[in-house]
Amino acid sequence: MGLSILGTGSYTPEHKLTNEDFTEFIETNDEWIRTRTGIRSRRVADGEPTWYMGAQAARAAIEAAGIDPTEIGLIIDTTITQDFCTPSTSCIIQRETGAVNAACFDLNAACSGFVYALDMAHRFLKTEPSARYALVLANEQLSRITNYEDRSSCILFGDGAAAAVVEYKADALYSSHLGADGTGAKFLFARTALPASPFIDAEKAAQKWDDFDEGIIGRYAHCMKQDGKEVYRFATQAMPKAAAAAAEKIGFDLQELDRIVPHQANIRIIETAMKNMKLPMEKAVVNIAEHGNTSSASIPIALDEAVRSGQIKRGDKICLVGFGAGLTYAAVIMEY
Ligand code: UT7
Questions:
Q1: 252 CA distance to ligand 1 centroid (A)?
Q2: What letter does residue 163 receive in the DSSP assignment?
Q3: 8 Å CB contact between 255 and 269
Q4: In angstroms, rounded to a whole number, what is the distance separating the alpha carbons of residues 136 and 73?
Q5: Is 122 one of the annotated active-site residues of the chain?
Q6: Model pLDDT for residues 5-32, shown as the tens digit of each residue
Q7: Which residue among 147, 152, 266 has the greatest number of ligand 1 atoms within 8 angstroms of its CB, and so is best to mutate?
Q8: Domain-by-domain residue ranges, the chain?
Q9: 41 φ, ψ to 5°?
Q10: pTM value > 0.85
Q11: Mind listing the pLDDT tens digit for each residue in 258-317?
């Protein structure tokens, strides 16, 4: 019932935004950002599209896997910052990688996206005999939907992409748990197109937006808006809950894990979640200091870096676990 990760890859933009850089346009300081979030710097795109970052990561993963892209039967791309309403980013990734035999679609589960997509790929490969491999990737350009006048959120986010080539493996360790709580949707959201057609009465329309109308207008109207404390509270409970639920399905003891790859949103969230799971912090893969929060790309970037630096080795029992807007949460337990 398992899944094997054959190769991973990642890409982050050149441009580095340090904590110090923020002091030039908002009232903040390096010490506050470091101690409250664990972040020191993040990468931000300098004009490259989201799909470009995804394609770079996908090519690296295919190369690491050493497979022929024509044998990829499925591409799932996760993003909340796609370049186009249509076509899907995954179709562009297909064009860029030569994975001509793949079914392609995008998946939006916010920061839990990669874990959701991995589990969807597992289910697809298990039941579709013509598909040998799946390419699961996440590409995010949060700098596009970040309000750089909101000091409590803008310091958190960065851009990047990562990918994995996976194969179904009947006898491997595998379990998952996916969940959501839509009542928390209002705690973290970014609107798409604002009412702009000539047939709309803006005032009446605003009433129908209910919790989601925050009266934001102008340059940052489409940007992320969050209630940090509510998201924080949810996160510290949701990650342990997802991991425990996945473990319970197969009678697995979380203490047997070699490594946890959590969503990189805030070092304090990771520390509390690890404590709630009764796991030592040394088992967590952490790269938040250099990347900040890159939404669905955060878990696979951390995974790729851990694999390439030898922190995760073949045979290790790992858990990928995340939470995000929706509110969503997800965990996968597997062997690397
Ligand atoms: O992928 C999911 C994405 N979202 C998250 O994971 C967010 C989860 N939440 C968090 O990580 C934290 O709630 C934040 C990092 C967003 C905020 O940390 P906090 O410890 O909850 O701070 P706070 O909002 O309670 O603010 C404490 C103080 C406030 O000042 P007063 O009212 O006590 O005078 C803020 O105005 O810190 C102030 N503050 C800042 N000060 C310097 C808020 N942002 C900043 C800043 N620099 N950037």
A1: 36
A2: E
A3: no
A4: 11
A5: no
A6: 999 999 999 999 999 999 999 999 999 9
A7: 152
A8: 2-173, 175-184+225-335
A9: -155, 165
A10: yes
A11: 999 999 999 999 999 999 999 999 999 999 999 999 999 999 999 999 999 999 999 999
Q: Which amino acid is at 70?
A: T
C-alpha–C-alpha distance, residues 178 and 169, integer Å: 21
Query: Domain 175-184+225-335 - what CATH class?
Result: alpha beta
Question: How far is the C-alpha of 35 from the C-alpha of 135, rounded, in Å?
Answer: 37
Whose alpha carbon is nearest atom 3 of ligand 1? 265
15 a catalytic residue: no
Of the residues 19, 91, 104, 111, only one is catalytic, namely: 111
CATH H-level superfamily of 2-173? Thiolase/Chalcone synthase (3.40.47.10)
Same fold flag, 2-173 and 175-184+225-335:
yes
Q: Give the residues across from 10 on adjacent strands.
A: 162
Tokens 């009266």, residue? 215
Instruction: Please tell me what DSSP assigns to residue 83.
Output: S
Q: Rounded to the nearest whole angstrom, what is the distance from the C-alpha of residue 228 to the centroid of ligand 1?
A: 6
